[in-house]
């Protein structure tokens, strides 16, 4: 038998989850740099606020990275799944685009001293 108290508790937990999610989303800062990793090694770093188009040559293929209006996205790639193109635009700290076939990660980072796990190597 479901008690009224249980329902209130469940609703409270759901509400708490929504609030936490909102806080996390708001906590995401607009990034300032786009860092390119191939096979977990940094191969490039670009300013997110400077519009540019970069051809990223990996061991497995090519990705075309476009940086425009503070957003980074892949416009072209010769990987078989094209998932990296479908991932769309990223602009906030911690957001990333992954191209699994090319072992490529494109990650947005801020300049507030926050370091990624890769920086510690
Ligand atoms: Zn891809």
Describe the structure using short key phrases.
121 residues; alpha+beta; mini-chromosome maintenance (MCM) complex, domain 2; 2 domains; three-stranded antiparallel sheet; 36% strand; elongated; disordered C terminus; binds zinc ion; NusG_2_sf; NusG domain II-containing protein
Could you explain the architecture of this structure?
By secondary structure, the protein is an alpha+beta fold. It folds into two domains: 1-29; 33-120, Sandwich (mini-chromosome maintenance (MCM) complex, domain 2). Helices cover 23% and strands 36% of the residues. The protein is built from two helices and seven strands, in the order αβββββαββ. It has a four-stranded antiparallel β-sheet. A hairpin with a 4-residue loop joins β6 and β7 (104-109). The longest helix is centred in the first third of the chain and has 24 residues, at 4-27. The protein is elongated, with a radius of gyration of 19 Å. Residues 113-121 have low confidence and may be disordered. It binds zinc ion.
CATH architecture classification name of the largest domain: Sandwich
Low-confidence runs (pLDDT<50, min 5 residues)? 113-121
Question: What ions, cofactors and ligands are bound?
Answer: zinc ion
CATH topology of the largest domain: mini-chromosome maintenance (MCM) complex, domain 2
Question: Secondary-structure blueprint of this entry?
Answer:
Elements (H helix, E strand, L loop, with lengths): L3 H24 L5 E6 L2 E7 L4 E6 L4 E7 L2 E7 L5 H4 L9 E4 L4 E6 L12
Antiparallel strand pairs: 1-2, 1-7, 3-4, 4-5, 6-7
């Amino acid at each position: 038998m479901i008690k009224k108290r249980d329902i209130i508790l469940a609703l409270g937990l759901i509400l708490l989850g929504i609030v936490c999610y909102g806080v996390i989303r708001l906590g995401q800062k607009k990034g300032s740099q786009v860092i390119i990793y191939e096979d977990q090694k940094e191969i490039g770093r670009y300013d997110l606020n400077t519009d540019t188009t970069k051809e990223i040559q990996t061991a497995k293929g090519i990705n075309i990275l476009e940086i425009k209006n503070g957003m980074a996205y892949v416009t072209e790639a010769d990987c078989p799944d094209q998932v990296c193109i479908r991932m769309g635009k990223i602009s906030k700290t911690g957001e990333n685009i992954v191209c699994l076939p090319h072992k490529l990660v494109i990650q947005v980072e801020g300049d507030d001293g926050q370091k990624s796990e890769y920086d510690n190597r």
